[in-house]
Design goal:
By secondary structure, this protein is an alpha+beta fold. The chain contains eleven helices and nine strands. Strands 2-3-7-6 form a four-stranded antiparallel β-sheet, covered by helices on one side. A three-stranded mixed β-sheet has the order 1-4-5. The chain has a two-stranded antiparallel sheet with strand order 8-9. β8 and β9 form a beta hairpin. The longest helix is centred in the middle third of the chain and has 37 residues.
Amino acid sequence: MNLELSEEQTAVRQLARDFADREVAPYAAAWDRAERVDRAVVKKLGAVGFLGLTVPEQYGGSGGDHLSYVLVTEELGRADSAVRGIVSVSLGLVAKTIAAWGNEEQKRDWLPRLCSGDALGCFGLTEPGTGSDAGNLTTRAVHDPATGTYTVNGAKMFITNGTWADVVLLFARTNDEPGHRGVSAFLVPTDTPGLTRREIHGKLGLRGQATAELTFDDMRVPASALLGPEGKGFSVAMSALAKGRMSVAAGCVGIAQAALDASLAYAAQREQFGRPIAGHQLVQELIADISVDVDAARLLTWRVADLIDRGLPFATESSTAKLFASEAAVRAASNALQVHGGYGYIDEFPAGKLLRDARVMTLYEGTSQIQKLLIGRSLTGVSAF
């Protein structure tokens, strides 16, 4: 792997950094307090091409490689991971999955709108009683051969972009086969009758993100809504999550980088015992620990992007990056709070928000424990489930 960025990648990184510093970072604290990101940022993300990264230009995307995508999500994560989540889900989990599994009509219908920011997508997998056990879904889609439609009943929980999305990539059980073999994927417009949405408030972190519970009550969708073959929904979901975990890891690198930046700035100006605390060895130790976590998480994440761009297997490496980077972000934010002392405990300084945002990263798109099981199964060849 060549660790030197190309001129194009360097330019994309700088574009993302400038965008994050101008359009996101100045408002992050206010959005966190209000529990709502300004939706105007979505069109701005689309205008600079961030919602279409790696999607072919023929479908309205901006093309590019996966390392460029990682660089963008890292910078957005540094500024506010709630905004990073908009991109990670609508592009990383939905648009990229449509590009990989959709037919020509589905690609031309949804991809241009998702890439421009005229539409947003959400990923309907997690259920109120089913999180990590994605093969045991209870949401059902019953096929009626007479009308060629499916009737959907059930619910989804903790859905990022849920109240904003125009389309949900929905996973539901279409037959009684045990485990994942009975799961299918559907593309469902969120204005479909029978679909209701309830926004979730009072979250520990990522407060600005539009997180929702979705309920389906005799919702009817046509057979043309199937994404991929019937019964292959679990494969669709796992392929999406394998790349999605890379995006989460990149966002965690951004959180850890923000923790390092904030710690360095605070330690340089805060004086104790007659000199800046940056000169105290134990503070230097905290900062050094953050720096090591940033570098290690970044390299693990870049490796995943490199493997994808070279067409090589990457699922285990993606789980590795997500596991390490999410736990590293928690450590980095906790160390940053320690550097800030009492001031880290108030939201005038960023350490507290970084810690709250980092904590959820160890939970979604597969908990740290699930990542360990996936890595262990890959290494041993023995399933732990």
